Amino acid sequence: MKIYLDMVGCRLNQSEIEAMANQLRYYGHQVTGDPGEADLAIINTCCVTAKASADSRKMIRHVGNSGALEIMVTGCWVTMFPGEAVQLPKVKAIFSNDLKDNLVGELLRLQPEELILGGLPRDPLPGERHRTRAFIKVQDGCDAHCSYCLTRLARGRSRSVDLAVIGKNIEATQKGGTKEIVLTGVQLGAYGKDLEEKLSLCDLIKRVLHDYPGLRIRLSSIEPWDLSDELLGLWESPNLCRHLHIPMQSGSAKILKRMARRTTPEEFFDLVSKAQNLIPGIAITTDVILGFPGETEEDFEETIAMIRKLKLAGGHAFTFSAMVGTPAEKFPEQVSYTVKKLRNHICRQAFEECKEVFHKLFIGQNFSVLWESAKLWNGTKPGESAKRMESSKLLLEAKPGESGKLPESEKVGENAKQGKMGWELSGLTDNYIRVKAFSEKNLENEISLVRLERIDPAGGWVHGEIIK
After folding, report:
1. Cβ-contact 216, 181 below 8 angstroms
2. Which of 263, 350, 244, 253 is nearest to 292 (CA)?
3. CA distance 436 to 241
4. Which of 417, 421, 424 lies closest to 406, judged by CA?
5. Which tens digit of pLDDT belongs to each residue from 169-179?
6. Three-class SS of 137-174
7. Cα 146 to chain center, whole Å?
8. Separation CA 203–CA 297 (nearest Å)
């Protein structure tokens, strides 16, 4: 059977569909990157915002319209709105989050004791969800009570994955050639508190650093109240990537209180400053919600001022949407859609300006870059004419693991003969700078030493020169 997997939402959802793909391959099925050739599609949904819910519905319809014969859906949106999910075209079955781990078992009619839940060799997903980095699920659920969020209801209470299981999953990714992992959870900083032998996120990271030397390690989003001095001290290891994504949500003390966030603007600023002082070159990114009920122009200006003051490396701006079942849905002083969208636009601009300033700090320096993708290049400067190349069919996707040999010149068009042929590579430094560079070989999933040359005028990434 050919099966297509896709998702909307967080890295945890990516981790979960990768685990399902590993199981399906183990039991003899083919994972495809094309929904049009799929006998069955599995979609992992999200409802963190109204847009995420809409995107989940849109994806299910799109996959059905693309030709998938049947669809199974799971995830947070399905958990919260099962009645809507089951009515969508071609949906064969729905699985709430508490049944998600047994989805493959139900599909293949396996007994619980027959289903292997982890430790299977990893092969990156084909298509749009292809990732060289492996997302390792270490925790699920949340014990926070933020007034705008459905995640606690959709995912349940915080639950930690046993250390031994995490180790087996990491070893499985290494067998597949993975060079970088992302430790992922809904409330990552809560790791270990619910285990019989009480542990902490620090304990987990120390174990991974010790047991897997040479492996690059990233953390997914972590709440500010979970960042201890002990945790920040772990970045003495060069294997721990210098990037922290710490949700701020607002720079206004009044709005943070209405959100039921366990921090103040002053505390958040002190924490970020401490991390920046202790870990030179670290990238700090954040999330901000614009137009939360009661947010005045003054509150919004406090948020923008805080973004600039923090010297961030970028961030995500979300327009507030009232989610059914959350306290914020019924809060008074709802902000108009027009005002919310304008504030979102201004905030995105502020984040882009911060990113550019951060990138400028490292021009001329050398970094190790893990290449995540490789595209055939016909002699134009990396990234500068991707649209033209795509439209003229000169840009071809390289298959994962493909050798560095180039195809015959006639396969890429007459114009390519005029320029130097090679590969346009895209990857990340450990401190989350997107780098693009030229190589005569396909170096996907390889690590190179790269000198950062200049910021691309389109923004968002840096041109690099491979040194070795």
Report:
1. yes
2. 253
3. 19
4. 421
5. 999 999 889 99
6. ECEECCCCCCCCCCHHHHHCCCEECCHHHHHHHHHHHH
7. 21
8. 43
- C-alpha to C-alpha distance for 45 and 7, rounded to whole angstroms: 6
**Residue 412 burial (10 A CB sphere; 0-12, 13-18, 19+):** buried
Q: Supply the pLDDT for residue 330.
A: 93
Contacts of 62 (CB under 8 A, 6+ apart): 35
Amino acid at 164: A
Helices within 121-248 (DSSP H only): 151-155, 163-175, 201-211, 229-232
First CA to last CA distance, the chain? 43
Alpha helices in 295-435 (DSSP H): 297-309, 337-360, 386-391
Query: What are 463's strand-pairing partners?
Result: 436, 454
Residue 316 structure tokens: 């995500």
- Please list, in sequence order, all residues whose beta carbon lies within 8 angstroms of the beta carbon of residue 466, skipping any fewer than 6 positions away: 437, 438, 439, 443, 448, 449, 450
Question: Which own/partner contact pairs does 342-345 have at CB distance under 8 Å and 24+ positions apart?
Answer: 343/290, 343/291, 343/295, 343/300, 344/290, 344/291, 344/317, 344/318, 344/319
Angstrom distance (rounded) from CA 68 to CA 228 = 47
Q: Give residue for tokens 């500010």.
A: 224
pLDDT at 60: 97
Token readout for 240 is 């721990």
Where do the H-state alpha helices sit in 42-126? 50-66, 76-80, 82-86, 103-108
The structure tokens listed for 291 are 């137009």
Which residues of the chain have a pLDDT value below 70? 378-420
Q: Name all domains of the chain by residue range, CATH numbers in brackets.
A: 1-129 (3.40.50.12160), 366-400+408-466 (no CATH)
Count CA within 13 A, CB hemisphere, residue 434: 15
Per-residue tokens: 346:
């201004």
Type of residue at 85? A
Alpha-carbon distance values, 221 to 190, 322, 349, 362, 444 (Å)? 12, 22, 22, 24, 26
Element housing 12 (H / E): helix 11-26
Residues 6+ apart with CB under 8 A from 240: 205, 209, 217, 234
pLDDT of residue 458: 81
